[in-house]
Amino acid sequence: MRMYDIIVNKRDGLRLTEEEIHYFIQNYVHGKIPDYQISALLMAIYLNGMTSEETAQLTLEMVKSGDTIDLSRISGLKVDKHSTGGVGDKATLIVAPIVAACGLPVAKMSGRGLGHTGGTIDKLESVTGFRAELTVDQFIEQVNEKRLAIVGQSGNLTPADKKLYALRDVTATVDSIPLIASSIMSKKIAAGADAIVLDVKVGSGAFMKTFDEAVKLSKEMVAIGENLGRSTVAIISDMDQPLGYAVGNSLEVYEAIQTLKGNGPQDLLEVCIKLSSYMLLLGQLANNEGEAEVMATQAIDDGSAYACFLEFMQAQGADLQILINQEESLISKENCKIITAKHSGFIQHISASQIGHASMILGAGRETKESAIDYFAGVRLLRKPGEFVQVGEQIAEAYSTKADIGQALSLIQQAYIIGDHSIDQPALIKAIITKREIESRKI
């Protein structure tokens, strides 16, 4: 078998065989195929696509290229959750304790982030003492005892994905649905999930900018999961505007705690209850969506989700006094700048992309892997779409220790669209995609 022939086949729009996919993945990981040939193949895939079967096989070979996590020592079905990322997306910090409190074990591996803010691990590490590194035995033991553990991605999981992604990044082939889908799903499957709930964000603050793109990616990922024996559901949710009020790391932890205590923003709560309900459904702890939503809501109302969060954080070394005295410990008031409304009217829209960009400039995110994060930096929205504001009224806060944040403050100001009339806000949940059906909601 020759790599040249594999490139020709995909260039000519032919379907790659299981043997061909196995050949190029395994040999590339072991340094036997040069970058320039893989680059040519990636461009051919970008231009001609892949069938669902090809994409599933590519995902499987990426999983097999490295280590996998065996979660069989944890009783019950293990349901993982993944978000494609957005502005103010702290859902994992809320969803994981909710479903764990309902009895579903959550053994989650999460990443650190590039872009607007940090990833889930960065947010958790904004709490002094939190340890994201556990051995596999410690990880499994904690899930069995506390029903919840969240650790950083470590070890030799999916090395093929790491190599391919680095090459895609410099060959203009990142925006390929089969390559995006296989990248995401390979990590979830290697991490030991029995079932997967995907939160696919769509809008200006998301990777997928249009609904059609989000549906296409969702269908591809659901097909991969089902082809590889994992029950998979994708929930498409809005990311044209920030989720919740907080965008940052410690700021988002504070808002997550408020939500778990029953005092969170309605938009954030709605998304988290929906994600939780589908995790409970796939974990076979509920018979239908309505029953699952009641269970998830009850876990917040009776305090069990918040208690589960505290136990999990304490088990991984977090300073509980910081969590108990949240506002004093997680919000740095001395580094706060106020943004006010330039004129009176109804807030019609808040641009997620501009708020996200501002947050990164303030220091909450990374431009490169080497960039340092300021855990206390970020943006806190004080008013949301649909509300009426007077000229000069405070609409947002910016937190940063940097001296020059003028650009960030300008972006936050520009993000607010204020008009004479209130307008209907778009639905948060756009569609739910399962193996059998698409449940579309009016946009």
Automatic annotation (TrEMBL):
Organism: Desulfuribacillus stibiiarsenatis
Signal sequence bounds: none
Enzyme superclass (EC): transferase
Catalytic activity: uridine + phosphate = alpha-D-ribose 1-phosphate + uracil; 2'-deoxyuridine + phosphate = 2-deoxy-alpha-D-ribose 1-phosphate + uracil; thymidine + phosphate = 2-deoxy-alpha-D-ribose 1-phosphate + thymine
Homology family: Belongs to the thymidine/pyrimidine-nucleoside phosphorylase family.
EC annotation from Swiss-Prot or TrEMBL: 2.4.2.2
Description of how the protein assembles with itself and partners: Homodimer.
Protein name: Pyrimidine-nucleoside phosphorylase
SMART domains in the cross-refs: PYNP_C (SM00941)
Superkingdom: Bacteria
UniProt record, GO biological process: pyrimidine nucleobase metabolic process; pyrimidine nucleoside metabolic process
